[in-house]
Structures are given as structure tokens and as C-alpha cells.
Amino acid sequence: MLTCAFCSSLFPLVFCTAMLFQQMMKFSWDNYKRYAWGKNELRPLTRNGHIGNMFGGLRGASIIDSLDTLYIMGLTEEYNDAKEWVQTSLDLNSNGEASLFEVNIRYVGGLLAAYYLTGEEMYKNKVLELGEKLLPAFNTPTGIPRGVINLGSGTSWSWGWASAGSSILAEFGTLHLEFVHLSELSGNPVYTEKVMNIRKLLNKIEKPHGLYPNFLSPVSGNWVQHHVSIGGLGDSFYEYLIKSYLMSDKTDGEAKKMYYGAMEAIEANLVQKSPGGLTYMAEWRGGILDHKMGHLACFSGGMIGIGADDGAPEKRQHFLDLAAEITHTCHESYTRSATKLGPEAFRFDGGGEATATRLSDRYYILRPEVIESYMYMWRLTHDPKYREWGWEAVEALEQHCRVESGFSGIRDVYTMTASHDNMQQSFFLSETLKYLYLLFSDDDLLPLEDWVFNTEAHPLPVIRRSCAQDEATQDKTSSE
Ligand code: DMJ
Questions:
Q1: Which atom of ligand 1 is the closest one to the Cα of 296?
Q2: Terminus-to-terminus CA distance in the chain, angstroms?
Q3: How far apart are CA 204 and CA 438, in angstroms?
Q4: Which of 328 and 10 is assigned the larger pLDDT?
Q5: 329 lines ligand 1 (CB under 6 A)
């Protein structure tokens, strides 16, 4: 029997780890509650709250992102405090400039998951109220939303840093799961129509080598420049293709086709093997490869894993192997650092492999992607190495990121003298700790056949149509 390295108890490892992750969650939550209640994130060194400008005046991002994690971990008192705050203090009448993407994945995703897990109508009412406020972002000549929206006036515009007023693939391509559920819950097809329109445009448009570049004009519907990445700016678009298919109970054939088509292009153009034998995803700039992989791109091990089973029969094992190889490379990016945490980006040129060569890439901000892939790969293979790797990450988080009043990111994973960034990101509560908990739980906790996780790790149920509903839809379609 494996025993817990932390408490040296004789409990089987799963019980011990469950308690440990509850304790980590409770510690993060209690400090947030004590020093930053109602703000978006906790600043654990200065012991105050951070609001930032991503959520357009919405508050409590850490509360919304924590609801489902607290609930599934059985932290009842803490969950009830979170629920009460949503009920009494979540004010959706804000008038600020919000990232459509961030509000969708954290607030819409968090409230939807809370509703589906608990059945509390209050979450449903809140999320439908919020969903309506996001609709004006789609009022563009193509229906491709812009990145920023004023939640009060509905005015929207593109990020100043995005070239030529373009919209970002990973932003407008990461709405599908939540918007389909908004239509399910409201009975209003408008949400599904908006995201299906994005899908149609992307399906139709000419793609360089079959690849999807990161920037698209919401006015002309053309690509703005040819930078392709499975990491930042592109990542969750690919994730939402396969998850849309899985969430539709495997009926969304268009999503399936687009996902496997994208995978083929990615394999042909981006997947590389280093001289040392590590498989990685390079970035593509108009045909020139940049041999760099971001921490964000490490989600792709899990994504390729969950997509393996529905690939062409002769490719299934290949996809599973590829998923394992990518996850192995991401683990290497952790083991090759002094802290055993991975850098924001690592490279495969300039002599090194799976290490950051630039000072500016050495930080770790409590991101989940590597642990996320461990969780999926564990569920798919039950190879114990994924739990061992998860455990290494826990020890590193405890040693380098735990501070007196919460968890903090660090500025340099290659030095043992920690310099903390003073930020407990809300995705640490929604993703990193939840994926760790699931990695050590039984497979019947949120089984992958019944739930898909949005890109912020909020679980959404697979939508199963009853035969009666199917017949009704068919009758309707044939009479049109
Ligand atoms: C999260 O908000 C989501 O996982 C998003 O898809 C990417 N960035 C962070 C975590 O790193």
C-alpha cells in the first residue's frame, strides 16, 4: 500500500491525498476569504485583494471559480459561504470593459457548473442574466465577436495589442460549450446560433496548410497574420472542437471533422521530435517554425488523449502514444528545473531541451495545464507514473508556492531562493487543485463519459437527447 509522504499515515494514498487537497483548497480559500473577500484574486504576500481589469467590473472571480471545487471536495461550510455571496453580492450590473473570453470561461462556466452540480435555480438565473449581457459582442459584420465588451452598454472592440483590430482564435473559439448550455437552459437558440456561426465561418475559410492562424478580422472574416500556436492565442479553440463533439454525446459531426482535420495539420506541420527524443509542439510563423512550447500548450496531452478513442481506428493507438509523449515532455520541463515546477515557456533550440532560455520565460503562475494532462492520462491509462508526477508537483507547490497567507506564483523556477509574484490566481482554485483532486480520486467522480470540463475546469454535462426529442427534431427538420 502506498502511504502518504506528507502525513506518513497508513491510509491508502487516495484517502490521504483527498485530505491533503481539501486542506490546500481550504488554506487558499480561507486566506482569500480573510484578506480579499469579494475581490477577484488574493495577493497572499501583501494580504489584500486584487481586482484587475479583465472582468469589466465583475467581482468575486475566485468565488465563482471555486464553487464547484469546494462542492466536489465536500468543503460544505466554505461552499455555503460562496453560494451566499453569489446570492447576495454578485452584481451583474457592472459597466466596465471585460474580456468576453475570461468572463465566459470563469463566470459563465463557473455558474453553469455550480447549477448542474447542485440544481440550485439561483445559479441558473444568474448565468442567464449574464449570458444576455454578452450577446452584443457578436454584433460585428461577420458575427465573430471582438475581444472586449462593455457589460453595461454592450459596446465592443478589439484588444489594442491584437494586430489590425483582429479577434483572437482562442477567445472567439472558446465559447461553444458554455453557449450551447445557455441555449439548453434558456430554451433560447440564440446562443447556439452565435457559436455555430463562428464554427461555420472557420470551417469554410481557406486555411494555410490546413492550419488555423491565431488572428482573424471580425470585419472581413479573413486571417490577419499567419501565426499558429497550440499554446497561448490558439490553445482552447482546438480543445473546444473535440469537447463540443464529446459534449454533444458524439452527435456533432462537424466538430469532430474539424478537430481531426486540425490534428492532421498540426501533426504534419507543428509536431517535432528533439534530438534528445522529446516530442513537442512548435509554433508556426508563416511556414517558419519557432521551436518553443508554452506551458499553456501542455493541455494538449490531455486533449489528444480524450480524442484518441474517436479517431480513425488505425490512429487510435497513435493518438494515445502522442498524448503520452507530449505529457512526458511537459513533465520533463518540470523535472529539469530546480524547483520541479515548469516555466512559462520552454525551448528546443540554443542547446537546451525543454528548458526556458529567456529570463522572461522562467516564471510559474500556478498554472494547471501539466497537471490537467496528468489527470486525463491517468484516467485513460491508469499508468501510476501520472500520479507520481502529480505528487511531485504537489511537493513542489508546497515547498515553493505556499506562503504564510495563501499560494503564490514564483518568478524563476530555476532558482531555489523563491521570489514570489504575490498573486493567487483564481484558476489555481478552479483548475490546479481540482485536477489534482481528480487525479487521485476514483474514476466515478465526474466520469469523463458524462462530463466535459470547460477550459477553466468547470464540469458541464454531456447533453443526451432522448429518442422522443430526436424524433421531434427530425420531424421539424424534414418539414422545413
Ligand atoms: C485558464 O484561465 C484557462 O485554462 C485558460 O484556457 C488558459 N489560461 C488559464 C490557466 O493557465
A1: 11
A2: 62
A3: 38
A4: 328
A5: no
Q: Which residue has the cell 472567439?
A: 172
355 is in an annotated binding site: no
Residues serving a catalytic function are: 102, 235, 344, 369
Ligand 1 neighbour 455 (Cβ under 6 A): yes
The 10 Å Cβ neighbour count of residue 104 is 27
The string of pLDDT tens digits covering residues 355-403 is: 999 999 999 999 999 999 999 999 999 999 999 999 999 999 999 999 9
Distance CA 461, CA 269 (A): 34
* Dist. CA 234–CA 229, nearest whole Å: 5
CA of 455 to the centre of ligand 1 (A): 6
Which residue did the predictor score with more confidence, 431 or 286?
431
Q: In angstroms, how far is CA 451 from the centroid of its own chain? A: 14
- Does 236 sit in the ligand 1 pocket, CB within 6 Å? yes
Cα–ligand 1 centroid distance for 11 (angstroms): 33
Burial class (CB in 10 A: 0-12, 13-18, 19+), 306: buried
DSSP alpha helices (H): ranges in 339-384?
A: 369-381
Measure 454 CA to ligand 1 centroid, in angstroms.
10
CA angle 361, 439, 5 (to 5 degrees): 85
* Ligand 1 close to Cβ of residue 434 (< 6 A): no
Name the helix (H) or strand (E) containing 333. helix 316-335
Is 427 close to ligand 1, i.e. is its CB under 6 Å away?
A: yes
Residue 470, pLDDT score: 55
Residues sharing a CB contact under 8 Å with residue 395, sequence separation 6 or more, in sequence order: 5, 340
Q: Measuring from atom 6 of ligand 1, which residue has the nearest CA?
A: 455
Specify the pLDDT at position 163.
Answer: 83
Q: What's the rounded mean pLDDT across residues 135-153?
A: 97
Write the pLDDT tens digit of every residue in 205-244. Answer: 999 999 999 999 999 999 999 999 999 999 999 999 999 9
Length of the chain: 480
278: which DSSP letter? -
